[in-house]
């Protein structure tokens, strides 16, 4: 009986949600072309987060080399986006990675994905609210922050913010009330604020070329000491940032990688291209091309703004909370600084409303599926909005904005989104080599008949024959179409590959100099992990692929998904220990909810079979 319970528990973890095909959806989006998808991708990617992250990463982590950080983040997001495109193509009626994971990979993967997206949206909401509070405070001459700090700073623990940010809390609660009343981001509003974003970024690019100084990319210790001895308090309330080694790459290659990890989430808007482009004309060409073009455009914009910012202001003097208006003030353009501050306040409000809308809908979707508490799926009768999901997620984001430091929570944004997007290439590796459910049943009947035919034979294979059969099964392509056995091999090898790549990334992140300087222990371990990873990749490659491919396929399988997993995991290894500790607490809470409640109350309309190639 206990073995049967364990089997049922395992089947529950991989059970998949069943969906009806949606021809209506496909015909509705079939008119979209590459230009339409590029406009959608750029509009959803140019978030106000660029205003927040560019200065913080340049000041403390990467310096002017943040441009290279954006390049690494863009390439990594492109790899993940291609894998998401194939995963989304398997579920045409799906509008989110959470639902695609539920339909293709099963319940546990869906919960991990959705829980990390909730983390991303909650933290991003808190960060945008704090950024809005800092920008509004700068317009008042910092009187709000000075008053709150003077009153509450002595009562705040060291691991929390210097003062409770009641402005940020009030803003989040106000936006929560607006969403409960049924507010929506209409296409017209989206176009207006996308235009505002482009206007702001274009003006900053122009300002950098006019007022920038190339010497700010060649700073030395003498420049730093001169700035430290001068009056810098009018520019940055936090004083000077670290100098590092000066020059264009003051914090080395480690700083570039850590900056790329923090900037990764800025490119996560490519999901809209996958969701809208599934039924577009020639998706095999339009989806990857439009995704690459939109990510390239956003890279040019983000890197251009960062270049202009570090041109105008030395990277250690940038304001981590209100960078663009203060940069204009630094170069003597005070009127433009105030106009920029007002425009940014509006852009941040739009970004905040859109993020909170997504946050409440994700919470509602998981609660409606039973993975979170069912009470969170309660709908307001008068407005049709998920009132409990909106209230609870908004309250959590407001609490974080009230009490926590900006820099202590911002790293969690990218860590959560990186983990969610690492599931996508793993899913592609597994799903491409799975058989059709119908063919699996036929194979079971065939295997039973073969076993019954072999039973009269008394000959037993020797150890050499057994080893040969194992090698042939792993490396030799016995069948042209996948079987249950080959599908399990691909699944197990994909899990093993993730573990090997995680270990390799950990070694490269913790002891990079020892590895590349020829240290016998570290170099041997790294080479051994690399060889094992290559062998497991070849084993996956030798397995037969599914007979009915999706409308869009990832090219260069399995190399591209493996490369995507490695890059994402390596970027995750750049996070601090404190960030991983916070993420561990969040994950522990999530798994406690899932195993204590969700696994017993999830939807019954599921398929208990393991992941298959088609939904």
From TrEMBL:
Classification via InterPro entries: AA/rel_permease1, CAT_C
GO-annotated cellular components = endomembrane system; plasma membrane
User: Which keywords has UniProt assigned to this entry?
Assistant: Amino-acid transport, Glycoprotein, Membrane, Transmembrane, Transmembrane helix, Transport
**Annotated region (Disordered), positions in chain:** 438-465
- Subcellular location(s) per record: Endomembrane system
In terms of Pfam families, this protein maps to: AA_permease_2, AA_permease_C
Task: Report domain Cationic amino acid transporter C-terminal positions.
Answer: 552-602
Locations of Basic and acidic residues compositional bias? 443-457
Principal location listed in the UniProt entry: membrane
Sequence intervals crossing the membrane: 37-59, 65-87, 108-132, 158-181, 188-210, 255-275, 287-316, 336-358, 379-403, 409-431, 489-511, 523-542, 554-573, 579-597
Bilayer topology reads: Multi-pass membrane protein
Is-annotated flag, keyword Acetylation? Answer: no
Q: Which family does it belong to?
A: Belongs to the amino acid-polyamine-organocation (APC) superfamily. Cationic amino acid transporter (CAT) (TC 2.A.3.3) family.
What is the protein name given in its UniProt record? Cationic amino acid transporter 3-like
Gene name of this polypeptide: LOC105074479
């Amino acid at each position: 009986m206990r073995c049967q319970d364990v089997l049922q528990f395992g089947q529950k973890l991989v059970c998949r949600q069943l969906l009806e095909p949606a021809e209506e959806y496909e015909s509705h989006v079939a008119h979209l072309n590459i230009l339409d998808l590029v406009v959608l991708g750029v509009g959803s990617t140019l978030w106000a987060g660029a205003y927040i992250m560019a200065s913080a990463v340049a000041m403390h982590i990467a310096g002017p080399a943040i441009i290279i950080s954006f390049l690494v983040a863009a390439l990594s997001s492109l790899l993940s986006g291609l894998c998401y495109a194939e995963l989304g193509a398997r579920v045409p009626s799906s509008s989110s990675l959470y639902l695609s994971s539920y339909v293709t990979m099963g319940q546990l993967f869906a919960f991990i994905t959705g829980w990390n997206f909730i983390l991303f949206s909650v933290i991003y909401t808190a960060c945008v609210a704090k950024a809005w509070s800092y920008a509004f405070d700068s317009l008042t001459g910092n009187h709000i922050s000075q008053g709150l700090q003077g009153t509450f700073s002595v009562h705040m623990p060291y691991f929390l913010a210097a003062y409770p940010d009641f402005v940020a809390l009030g803003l989040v609660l106000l936006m929560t009330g607006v969403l409960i009343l049924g507010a929506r981001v209409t296409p017209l509003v989206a176009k207006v604020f996308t235009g505002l974003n482009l206007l702001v970024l274009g003006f900053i690019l122009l300002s950098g070329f006019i007022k920038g100084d190339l010497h700010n990319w060649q700073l030395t210790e003498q420049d730093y000491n001169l700035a430290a001895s001068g009056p810098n308090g009018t520019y940055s309330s936090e004083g000077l940032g670290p100098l590092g080694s000066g020059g264009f790459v003051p914090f080395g290659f480690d700083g570039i990688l850590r900056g790329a990890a923090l900037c990764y989430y800025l490119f996560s808007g490519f999901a809209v291209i996958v969701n809208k482009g599934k039924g577009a004309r020639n998706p095999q060409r339009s989806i990857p091309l439009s995704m690459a073009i939109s990510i390239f455009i956003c890279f040019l914009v983000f890197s251009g703004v960062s270049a202009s910012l570090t041109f105008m202001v030395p990277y250690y003097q940038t304001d981590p909370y209100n960078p663009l208006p203060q940069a204009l003030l630094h170069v003597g353009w005070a009127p433009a600084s105030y106009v920029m501050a007002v425009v940014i306040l509006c852009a941040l409000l739009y970004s905040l409303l859109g993020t909170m809308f997504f946050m409440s809908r994700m919470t509602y979707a998981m609660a409606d599926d039973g993975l979170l508490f069912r009470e969170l799926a309660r709908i307001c009768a008068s407005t049709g909005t998920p009132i409990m999901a909106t209230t609870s997620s908004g309250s959590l984001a407001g609490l974080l904005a009230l009490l926590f430091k900006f820099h202590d929570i911002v790293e969690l944004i990218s860590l959560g989104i990186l983990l969610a997007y690492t599931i996508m290439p793993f899913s592609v590796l597994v799903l491409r080599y799975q058989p059709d459910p119908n063919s699996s049943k036929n194979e079971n009947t065939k295997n039973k008949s073969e076993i019954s035919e072999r039973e009269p034979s008394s000959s037993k294979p020797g150890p050499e024959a057994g080893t040969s059969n194992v090698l042939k099964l792993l490396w030799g392509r016995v069948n042209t179409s996948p079987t249950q056995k080959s599908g399990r091999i691909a699944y197990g090898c994909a899990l093993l590959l993730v573990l090997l790549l995680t270990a390799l990334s950990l070694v490269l992140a913790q002891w990079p100099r020892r590895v590349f300087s020829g240290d016998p222990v570290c170099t041997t371990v790294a080479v051994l992990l690399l060889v094992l990873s290559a062998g497991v990749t070849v084993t996956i490659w030798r397995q037969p692929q599914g007979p009915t491919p999706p409308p869009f396929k990832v090219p260069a399988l399995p190399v591209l998904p493996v490369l995507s997993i490695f890059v994402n995991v390596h970027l995750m290894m750049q996070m601090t220990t404190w960030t991983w500790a916070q993420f561990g607490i969040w994950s522990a809470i999530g798994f406690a909810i899932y195993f204590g409640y969700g696994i017993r109350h999830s939807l019954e309309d599921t398929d208990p079979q393991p992941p298959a190639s088609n939904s």
